[in-house]
Design a protein that fits this description.
Elements lengths: L1 H19 L6 E6 L4 E8 L4 H13 L8 E6 L15 H5 L1
Parallel strand pairs: 2-3
Antiparallel strand pairs: 1-2
């Protein structure tokens, strides 16, 4: 019974990721300003904290080893992916 629940969750997660697509993902850039590497993560502003946490948790499952500083910002001009469950959208984007 537990395996069925886990399989259903994995299917849901996979389908959600397919709906989000590359358009809904964060942009990442590596930068070397002669002071060392920096990783810049630019998250779409329309994404909710819950969706950001969900995607972060997936990243933890596939860790990349680095010791570079990370700078996180948001992109308020990013176009929201339509058709996702309501929990995926920030309150501000739901009110637009």
């Amino acid at each position: 019974m537990e395996a069925l629940g886990q399989s259903a969750q994995q299917t849901y997660n996979r389908e959600l990721l397919l709906k989000i697509g590359m358009t809904g993902m964060s942009d990442e850039e590596s930068d070397d300003d002669h002071t060392g590497w920096v990783i810049r993560i630019v998250r779409p502003a329309w994404r909710s904290d819950s969706l950001n946490q969900f995607l972060h948790d997936l990243d933890i499952d596939a860790p990349i080893q680095h010791n570079y500083p990370i700078i996180e910002t948001t992109n308020s001009r990013a176009v929201a992916v339509s058709g996702l469950p309501p929990f995926c959208y920030s309150n501000a984007s739901l009110q637009e």
